[in-house]
Amino acid sequence: MTTLASGTDTLTRDALTVLQPGFTGTTAPDWLLRRLGEGLASVGLFGRNIASPGQLAALTAQLRAERDDVLVAIDEEGGDVTRLEVRSGSSFPGNHALGAVDDVELTHQVAHELGRRLASCGVNLNWAPSADVNSDPRNPVIGVRSFGADTELTARHTAAYVTGLQSAGVAACTKHFPGHGDTAVDSHHALPRIDVSADVLGERELAPFRAAIAAGTRAVMSAHILVPALDPDRPATLSRRILTGLLRDELGYDGLIVTDGMEMRAIAGTYGIERGSVLAIAAGADAICVGGGLADDATVLRLRDALVAAVRAGELPEERLAEAADRVRALARWAGAAGGPAESTHGTEIGLHAARRALTVTAAPGLGSPDTFEPLTEPPYVAALTPVANIAVGDETPWGVAAELIHLLPGTVTGSFSAGDGPEDEAGEDAGRAALQAAGPRRIVAVVRDEHRHPWMAAALDALLAARPDTIVVEMGVPQAAPRGSLHIATHGAARVCGRAAAEVITGVPGL
To answer: I need a labelling partner for 63 at 20 to 30 A (CA). Which of 54, 70, 162, 329 fits?
Structure first.
């Protein structure tokens, strides 16, 4: 174990130990290395920190040269939410695609291979999987990050994902407890609220977390959501009733509890990150995730000092802070004992294999069937109807089928269309007309993402299909809207491999 810098007292070390901060840059800044020497035990990585697998491995080696037992965490769900492949799109489909296949062994294999890649880069804690049951189709933040709307399906795939990831030596962090699926508000922006009974929560939201706990998940991430049936006053991240009374006492979970990002507006906008962090540790959380937006030494020192001051003022029991720090160290010991990266037992193409299996291919009534579809041989026009990016996904990650179609059919032309600022129906009609004009005589491939949540997108498709009923529609979100188009392909996610699988169907060329 690394020897900590002298002169740092136990209370201050414990306060640093419970923090999981991010930072900017592709090498560790001096301030971060200094805090690791003083007791900081975890670091969170985001897309901004990663340029290549080799660079990431060098970065984690740099961190471990300062502290050999450091927990290196990442938000790598595969699918739409990727950090390893933030600039190219993921080699693995996300949860919704895996749920659509509904083969728990495949989910285990995908999670194992993803974990193996993380471990080979020196990452040993993954803030995944999402165990949220996507029971509200309007959900703006979960969607394809969920295995689905069925509780039992979500539970069995959550367990398979946890065991697959951890079999590769990477700790799973099952999220977002007690369940973020029945919300129509994004907690990055405001505080969501779930108004259902405790019985419904127990039967629906909690079932996947029970499965994860039974599977041995090493960490659980709390949600910034208000659940009045459990605690009418405080969001789950700050609720002792939820984190200690429910998760610890009722569900019997004894591993690490990590908060979602404390700089998210659901917490920062009401409590502030310092007060929020104190309340979270007091409620039963063990690690404070911060750094998606706030990533500097000043933030770390503010949180450290807030925790120390709360203990000295009698607002936070010192024993509770010490217990939290001990759980962080216990997970670090588990990660150290897990050893190096596992062997690849399922092949590097497992992600593409899963994406192909996840496709649902249909045709609108009266327009034939997938069996009679004639693959394209001439370059089409790809019209991407693009919604505002989910913050968890980020707008830097590419999505769609255009790149894959260009590879197969050189000369393919693409365009992106969005709602703009006007009324949604008018904006959609305008987008549809613009796409028709840009396409000219070319066959149109319209790519959408959660058509059911965006009236303008549906209106744009109306305009396209009225003029060009031979349009091919690719839905890369949750396929809630009725299939339409001469061919409708639901990919159940927007990972790069999902686009690749769809392009293979459109062109009839397997194995790009």
So the answer is: 162
